[in-house]
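Field reference: sequence -> structure
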Amino acid sequence: MTTYYDPDNPLGHPDGLVCEDCLEVMDELGGYYECPDCGSYSYLDVKDHVRFNRWPARSHEPTLTPEVAWFQGFKVHEADAELHGMVGDEFRYHHPSRVVLLRRDVALATVIEVPTAREGIQEAVISALVYHTAEPKVIAEIAQDVNLTRERLRELARRSRTLDEMVSAEPGNGPGTTGTNAPVGTKTSN
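Structure field:
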């Protein structure tokens, strides 16, 4: 079921916005929320040009809000995003709307329509979906939308699995964590 954004209570908690990472109630800090425990941002300002121009023009689901797409989106690995020219602090792909949302500081700064984006951005999104073990149907839909060949999809899947292995090289690490700087294959103690 699709949820629509409620600015008075974004995640439906009686005490306010709850951090998605550690489930603590967040502090309101002048237009955004910050988790006092882990420092995560979960409520974002949306630049006017994003809300009123980019989102309606580029989203395949313009009745949703950019905030909803952000919260439901898959993280795109920063190295992939930066390698392909996206500049920001965090990137997320929202499949129903077929867009990448780009956050700078605490604001959504732009929206990129993936089916018409540069090939590198499309591949960064598909790598993120594979890395985050999205449903095969979702991966197949976006791969078809961007006319990705089966061979290139296999290459991206292999690269994403390698990234996953690197991140999970130490105990307690896995997809979505920052991991460590230990070289792949380094023996670590528990």
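Note: The chain has two domains: 1-43, 44-167.
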